[in-house]
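fyi for ur records
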Amino acid sequence: MSKLSIKENKCRLCFSKDIEKILDLGAQPLANSLDKKKNTKKKKFPLIIFICKNCKVIQLTETVNPNILFKEYFWTTSTSIAAKKFSKKFYKEIISLKNKKKPFVVEIASNDGTYLEPFKKKGYKVIGIDPAKNICEIANKKKILTINSFFDLKISNIIKKKYGEGDILFARNVIAHVKNIHELLDAAYNLIAKDGIFAIEFHYVKKILDDLQYDSIYHEHLFYYSIQSLKKLFKTHNFNLFDGFKSPISGGALVLIFSKEKKEKTKRLKKLEKNEIKEKVNTINKWKSFSKEVKDHSFKFKKEMEKINHKYGKIVAYGASARSSTFLNYTEIGQDYLNFIVDKNPLKNNLYTPGTKIKIIDRKIFLKDIKKFKIILLLAWNFKDEILKEFRKHGFSGKVILPFPKKIITKSL
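which gave:
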């Protein structure tokens, strides 16, 4: 793609033109395009989701050039304690599905290699593929062999020829990012051994609906998947869905397990599917209600922040995540309300948030002075347990604003 972005007038999956706009979050800068200087002008792109009436997949109206989005990246998986903890459970779940003594493991969009580490520690051959050069360098320094590339048929053939077929292939929080998902699935099918498995982790639309997680909508996430939509998509590429389990990542995700061979569905997958159908996750009416609730929530949050601003003046926030960018830009909470945002990731230190132009401060410096703050806006609410534990440990006894899930809550610690 040579253009900065392309407006889509049909479904990327089934190519139907029978689509309907669901929610318009306005023109927004790219969520991970942090700035070195405060007054850098940012290109903005429409942030709108639509539903395909044919295959029922929720997706963005705009596709931003992936080279702009992913060639340099600021999120590292190892930043999150919850992610590192879940990587061990993920390993146990996945390895239990394979009876091969030493399976060859490949991860698509492997980031800094955190989820490959448990496999490598057990002596399995592992390879990661990731498009972000800076993140690949981090992974390779950790001795996790990582190829700097997007995953396609060419890379699939290179790995297959040099290292053999993959026994276990997994992709965590990546299939939502890929416009040409059909090419990725063809490349995966080519690489996986006949008795191999393909594990897909994705932010589950049921959780987005249930918790009103509109902050999870940003330009990197082209798709918002359900079990039924993924099952249908993978079936067109001869993959069989046979298992699935919940993940705590992203505020509520699922891991679905596919195979080339026909396998019987597990009880836990059947339960997940039944619940999804019961909750009418894939219906237009459900998403229209979501859109209305989003507008109500953002209005209430802005009013709450105006009250807080009147009482306390500018406050501080924690978590300069991509999802916080969507939320702050949509609700128009910027420098008038926030002094700075704290973040754990050292790659973000002293940079400025896109659109809202708020400085990002080193967490270690902030924690030394945390006792003097009366109120903190917790934007990284999906990691609240580990963050609030740290606040308490460092003597914070003020109030915390939790904008999600669904309700705006101010609680005292």
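The longest helix spans residues 284-312. thats all i got for now
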